[in-house]
Specification:
heterodimer; A: alpha/beta; eight-stranded mixed beta sheet; 8 strands; 52% helix; disordered N terminus; B: seven-stranded mixed β-barrel; 7 strands
Chain lengths: 330, 362
């Protein structure tokens, strides 16, 4: 094989011992955008692995990066490796008009692992951003079924570009960057709602079910931690001091707050909400009472003549039902 | 290896291209689209469209855009196609204008943006045409105002098929579910055969007149959300990550301004109701077996539905209290999980008392 092939076979991704220093947050919207892009292209090109390319929008504050939105990119006619720069610039400016806080921070594609091709594409984006991130959707991991869905992770990987110096040669490589999922409140509600299929009413039951599901997840995670500690004590698993330290820090931070100021505010909020409930019940009772009075009038009005009815009504308007009633009895 | 995994491995190895029926909706058939646009069955029947299907991405983008614009009204366009009696929305994008209820021609300013975006979409393989517009009503519900009705009638005249979608981001957060409505207007010379009583929604006093005057000029479409099979899988996996946010976010705090404005508005409505309470009349009960009353019975049914103002106030107050209770339930749950010491029993008492209140309110 030629030396060209040798370079290709060398991994573009540095081994996992090197970790990126970025703290990366990913929102659900980019995830769903990429999924929709892939589904659409699959149907248009009628193939299982079409070439998908798009841009990432988000914010970058030092080492904290947040990927908030995405848009599709086009490539030059017929060529899969040249990005259509006019399109990129025009779309990016359009998005800037509507969301001024978002910047171009990287690009995405669908592949199982980054290769030389991706380095070539990466070079074309360095003009727009100093270190464009790469977000990859890995299709192969999706189709594998697993019994424990809680253990599965999203089939996405994020990479930060960097330069590796080895054997007196420099080459661009990618380092995998771990990410966590963040959402805004509106985003979470919308994502939740579509996950449940849309429709459905707000009721106490559905709200409680959502809370229960979240608490259940928390409980399962805690069980995993408890299992770990038991195993460590029994000597079955080597102790990892960093994990144990973070566990003890976590436990030390409970109870979450016994601060007097917090308690006061919490109690005030509790009372405010209960007050709202009380007012609502009062309003409901007033309405029921009003209906009752009306119906009573109808019943009475049917068997007496009009004059008595009007007098009775006036009496009731002033004093409420019972006293007026008594006053009218002969 | 089970048969399902064997099948999947086979499909992968042989690159068998398979489309699950759920994903068919994402395919854009150019010929079918041209044909239906030529036939234009909606021209003959003003009530042709019965439902509006929105894709998951389009919906989420619209909700995020609407929330980011609070307290202003924002607007944007949607791209999609017609399928049978339904308008299918595949994607949405925001427009750089802020609509206010007094500006009719907000859309004109964004014309250049719109034209550019849509014509370039083809390069990104997005082939669908513009199929509608959306805008937000922060805090005052999903319906069409007078200006909206005019804009939409104009759209339906020149750009049909076109649908109007309205989103309320404040209600979305406070209720915990997306508050969205899709509407089609009737042409000006058309009167609908029967006006069905629509579901009651609480409208602030300042807007209620605008709502009432134009309410008969348009009708709502059923809104459905669809997603691809890949979306469904990803959403399942996403839950593993964002369950934390379900616990940590609290609508009581984030929507405080809106909740307060709701209570103020209810107060004003109740003051008005106070004046009319003394003149309320109970409906006459229908007598059994009386034939001549049969014809007037449907009219009485409608009168019963037309609640008096106090009853409407009650509905509003129940909604406000229920939503506040939900928020409180989350807060108390968190308090118990994270803040109580094993010896404290006060937490459990609080929960029972709160659940009793919650159930009595609804």
């Amino acid at each position: 094989m030629t030396s060209q092939m040798d370079t290709d076979e060398q991994s573009i991704v540095l081994p996992s011992s090197t970790t990126s220093g970025l703290s990366l947050s990913l929102h659900p919207l980019p995830i769903l955008n990429i999924s929709e892009h892939l589904t659409r292209l699959k149907l248009q090109t009628r193939s299982n692995s079409p070439f998908v390319l798009g841009a990432l929008l988000g914010t970058q504050n030092g080492r904290e990066v947040e990927i908030v939105n995405t848009f599709e990119l086009a490539t030059e006619e017929g060529r899969d490796d040249l990005v259509d720069h006019d399109f990129l610039v025009s779309r990016r400016d359009q998005y800037k008009q509507v969301f001024p806080s978002l910047e171009f921070i990287g690009w995405y594609t669908v592949a199982s692992v980054p290769t030389y091709r991706h380095i070539a594409l990466h070079e074309q984006f360095t003009g727009y951003c100093s270190t464009p991130l790469l977000l990859v959707l890995q299709p192969s991991t999706i189709t594998s079924s697993s019994s424990d869905i809680t253990g599965q992770t999203l089939p996405f990987k994020a990479y930060e570009p960097t330069v590796e110096i080895r054997d007196k040669k420099t080459r661009s490589v990618f380092i995998e960057a771990p990410f966590k999922v963040e959402t805004g409140e509106a985003e979470r509600i919308a994502v939740d709602w579509t996950a449940k299929g849309g429709g459905g009413s707000t009721s106490l039951e559905s709200h409680l079910q959502a809370q229960r599901a979240a608490v259940k997840m928390l409980h399962e995670r805690i069980l995993v931690l408890v299992q770990y500690v038991t195993d460590v004590i029994a000597g079955q698993i080597p102790t990892d001091h960093t994990t144990l330290r973070s566990l003890s820090a976590l436990i030390a931070s409970l109870p979450a707050s016994e601060n007097k100021g917090f308690r006061d505010e919490f109690n005030t909020e509790y009372e405010d909400v209960q007050l709202t409930a009380l007012l609502s019940s009062l309003t409901k009772s007033t309405n029921i009472l009003n209906d009752l009075v009306d119906k009573h009038l109808v019943l009475i009005g049917g068997s007496r003549d009009d004059r008595t009815v009007t007098v009775r009504r006036r009496g009731m308007g002033r004093q409420g039902m019972m006293p007026g009633d008594w006053a009218m009895h002969p | 290896m089970t048969s399902s995994t064997a099948f999947k491995t086979f499909s992968l190895a042989n690159d068998v291209f398979e489309v699950s029926p759920q994903d068919e909706i994402y395919a854009f058939d150019v010929e079918a689209n041209k044909r239906i646009n030529r036939e234009a069955p909606w021209d003959k029947d003003p009530q042709y469209f019965k439902s509006c299907k929105i894709s998951a991405v389009a919906l989420i983008k619209m909700v995020i855009h609407a929330r980011s614009g609070v307290p202003h009204e924002i607007m944007g366009l949607m791209q999609g196609k017609v399928m049978g009696n339904s308008l299918v929305i595949m994607d949405s994008f925001a427009l750089p204008v802020q609509g206010t209820e007094t500006r009719v021609n907000a859309a004109n300013e964004a014309n250049e943006y719109m034209v550019k975006y849509i014509s370039e979409s083809e390069k990104a393989k997005r082939l669908e045409n513009a199929i509608g517009w959306y805008h937000s009503h922060p805090g005052y519900g999903c319906w069409l105002s007078g200006i909206d009705v005019d804009t939409q009638m104009n759209n339906q005249q020149f750009q049909d098929p076109f649908v109007a979608v309205v989103i309320d981001p404040n209600r979305t957060i406070s209720a915990g579910k997306v508050d969205i409505g899709a509407f089609r207007t009737y042409p000006s010379n058309y009167t609908p055969p029967n006006v069905s009583a629509s579901e009651y929604q609480s409208i602030p006093l300042s807007k209620i007149e605008d709502f009432g005057v134009h309410a008969n000029q348009y009708y709502p479409l059923d809104v459905e959300v669809f997603k691809s099979s890949l979306d469904t899988e990803l959403l399942g996996l996403l839950w593993n990550k964002y369950w934390v946010n379900t616990l940590s976010q609290s609508p009581l705090i984030s929507n405080r301004a809106y909740a307060v404005s709701q209570i103020v508005d209810l107060h004003q409505k109740l003051s008005k109701a106070q004046a009319t309470v003394s003149s309320t009349r109970a409906p006459l009960p229908a007598m059994k077996g009386q034939e001549e009353k049969a014809s007037s019975a449907p009219k009485k049914e409608e009168k019963k539905k037309e609640d008096n103002q106090l009853a409407k106030g009650v509905k509003d107050s129940i909604k406000i209290a229920a939503e506040a209770q939900h928020g409180l339930i989350s807060q108390v749950l968190k308090d118990i999980v994270f803040s109580s010491r094993p010896s404290q029993q006060a937490g459990a008492n609080r929960v029972t008392e709160m659940m009793d209140t919650a159930m009595s309110v609804e």
